[in-house]
Amino acid sequence: MVTAWILYPTLVRCFSVSFLTCLAKDLPLDFGTFLDSMFTTTGSRGLYKAPLSKSLLLILNGLTVMLTLLPQYQEMFIYNLQAVIQQHQVWRLLCGRLVCLDVKDSFCSSLLIYNFRIFERRFGTRKFASFLLGTWCLSALMDFLLAQAFQFLFDHEVEELPAGLLAPVFSLFVPFYLSVPSMPVTQVLGHIHITNKSLVYIIGLQLLTSSPFMWLLALSGLISGGLYYSNVLWLQKILFVPMWMSWIGRYTVEPIFSSSQPNNETPLGMGATLDIQRQQRMDMLDQQLLLAQYNESRRNARHQPQAGLLQWTRLFPSLRHRGQNRPPVQPHPQAQTHPSTRPPLLDNSPIAEEQVALLVEMGFSRTDALEALRASNNDINMATNFLLQH
């Protein structure tokens, strides 16, 4: 146990440095492929069209590593509520709520930001930045209100809270829970369902239990995210990133942190080994066969009883046997009398207009919605997940 407590911060620090190196050089290293294989809700395009997420990961984690190496400067980034109230150190609301002083908190929050980058792709960088800014401001007020309520109820003064961009990260769980569809992946003991969102919730739970008062920041973030997402009191029109600031960031910050569009025909960067190239080609083949495997697995699940054990090959798609990833075999024609009137495989059922309207309201075009519903055999959850990944 003592060895685990000693090695865990070292391993987390090594992973953080490797993650920063991968993001800075924009290389398709093993760690990036590992992240894409873990988060099945995010697709496998890395940080493409997510410059704000990439800048947060690079700058904030870089500052965390720097403060770990220079502990004499950590005093400036402590999130001390009593210092803000009694000594009027308002600058702590900025310094203490941006940079994590704990490497474990920085690592878990980085994984969550990497997963939540799908909202920047979906809503745009400006709306995503407005959501972070709005929840960051609201959570500052919520922190003081919850701390005062805790002191009134339990007669215990909350002096310090965990530092870092933690409350806005927790606030992103609100749109993640409400807008990202949940797809079953496997079952544990035949009763506990494992979905494509389970790992994200597990990482959030790990971050929640890392500090004694982390629950206060989590509650503050969830309340702030719910208020801003539901646009209570027109908060989205009050707390937002101005157009002029978005214009400045588009021509100054975005060119620095933007990632190139992934292309199958372009050669890989320096440091990419043959095994990584082979793994990436296999992942791309998995994306092409995603719909066919989903329909095939549903048919097989009706005929095969649950064994009561965790099916690891279904939980981690990157570990599947590649020989089994075959598209379903087209049935042979039974008669020669109607060779040209056979309908396509995925056009058997009509597309419900209500499902098309629902996808259009979520921000997708009508053409993409029709194609996704037709490809997923009119399955709304599968079509939504397919549109989020592409």
Structural write-up:
59% of the residues lie in helices and 3% in strands. The protein has 21 helices and 4 strands. The strands form 2 sheets. The chain has a two-stranded antiparallel sheet. Strand 3 and strand 4 form a beta hairpin. Helix 3 (51-69) packs antiparallel against helix 6 (103-115), helix 6 (103-115) runs antiparallel to helix 11 (198-208) and helix 8 (125-154) packs across helix 12 (214-229). The chain is globular and about 65 Å long.
Give a brief description.
This protein is mainly alpha-helical. It has helices at residues 2-25, 30-38, 51-69, 81-86, 92-95, 103-115, 117-123, 125-154, 166-171, 173-179, 198-208, 214-229, 235-238, 243-252, 254-257, 274-288, 290-303, 312-315, 353-361, 366-375, 380-389; strands at residues 79-80, 160-161, 184-188, 192-195.
Oligomer: single chain
- Sheet with most strands: 2 strands, antiparallel
Mean pLDDT: 75
User: Could you give the distance between the termini?
Assistant: 44 Å
Helix content: 55-70%
Total count of helical runs of at least 4 residues: 21
Question: Helices, strands, pairings?
Answer:
Elements: H1 2-25, H2 30-38, H3 51-69, E1 79-80, H4 81-86, H5 92-95, H6 103-115, H7 117-123, H8 125-154, E2 160-161, H9 166-171, H10 173-179, E3 184-188, E4 192-195, H11 198-208, H12 214-229, H13 235-238, H14 243-252, H15 254-257, H16 274-288, H17 290-303, H18 312-315, H19 353-361, H20 366-375, H21 380-389
Antiparallel strand pairs: 1-2, 3-4
Helix pairs in contact: 1-3, 1-6, 3-6, 6-11, 7-8, 8-12, 19-20, 20-21
